[in-house]
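Problem: given the chain below (278 residues), write out its structure.
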Amino acid sequence: MKNKPLIITLIVILSILTIGIVSLLVLLLNNSTSINKFFSNGFYSTSETIIHDQYYENKYDLIDIKNSLGDIFILNSEDEKIHVVVYGDKNQLTIRDSNNLKIDYKSKPCFGFCFNQPSSKVEIYLPSTYDKEINIENKTGDIKIEDFKEAILIVDSDLGDTDIGTVKSLEITSHAGDIEVNKVNRIKAINNLGDIKIDKVNEFLDIKADCGNIKIKCVDIKENSKIENNMGDIKINSTNDIRIDAKVNLGEEKVNNSNYKSDIVLNLENSCGNIEVN
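Solution.
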């Protein structure tokens, strides 16, 4: 066979690529490193140049934040005003201040593999009593949000971990990265690659994961809810007096407490992984 050496070479290359991809997935799923930090160490560095530092009155119905490359922090302020600090390139930043506060940072275009690409950092300080809506769209970077018990959050993250304190309502889509939430009344979450960890859900949950573990310490729902996972374990430490319907295609199922007379039902479905409810 004339092409035998070429075929052997291609097989070797594909084998190396497959081993590398599998090793990366195992590394990330074992939580030994952050997905975003893995890429950030070699591909981009955070800017230390402050390009915007301004206070705003707390009057907006919506705070909208978009960042194509960099971390986003929503932190508690020391007063009743809104404080916005942005690091990066001033030519890439747009801020609109009208009925809503809109912050949009677009990184410079980059094609192929971009090494040492400078990234931004957006810091927003809000009163802990803030009770309006916050929309966040982040392409590459981590998201950190402290406690805002009355806030409504909508988050869309392509690549990076999301860490959220206590909020009223959360709707989040994450394509690659872990999601951690302290306490939330209502949550709707979709995660394609990464773990989901929640301390407590008080009213309602709708969670879907493709590849990653789902762990919830306390479920205290008041409405029918559901959790679906394609690959990874589902573990709940405690629930209120509800009915739990669990279905596993490949894995083990262990449900210790379920009130089959309850009108409130928590549906658990897992394609490949265990279900454990204590």
